[in-house]
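Form 7-S
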Amino acid sequence: MVDTQGNIDTTTTVGARYFVPEFVKDLKTDISAGMRGITNPFTQARFEYPVDLDRWLIRPVQYFEYSAKREFYEETDLYFDRHISQTEMIRLLMQRSTETKTVGMQYNGSVGYYNTFAYNTGLRLFVSLAGTTQIDVSRYEDTRYDISPHAGVTRYSLGGGWKSAFFRKWLFYELEPRVDFDMVYDWHPNYVIRYWLEIYFGDI
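Output:
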């Protein structure tokens, strides 16, 4: 990932995910393990319990992760999905997380629009915000901006994503261009491009 403030994320993640057979009806569980970079192994457990409510699909998701550098991390996601046509969907997302080396609780919220144009090809557009209940002042000490950091919302984002299979039905790429307005940069626009490559094994 590269952004316009000169930050370059060169970490490459390689891992595998195992989908556990259901031992409780509708409870979906998977376990992942891999490497982020060369010196940061991680393992992660994910639990999901979807519920249909009128025309909404509500999906609580819980993650537990341990890695060498990050140590313990946990995250709760709450998705509200509603289809507006056969190929289009609106998603509301609320998220919270804590980790060993970060003060306070982090939280996020977003509204997204999803459209599946063809089999294994889709577009998403989103607006989001991110914040924290406590602020890590050290993150703001080296910035070139004169900032008085405070807890609360620390970032607003506007962006989109394009995901598609290529060459084979089990090989996917995803691109996510977005614009962040971050307190660490005194709310100046920060242009970011993220990209993923995914390989699926088994039925898709």
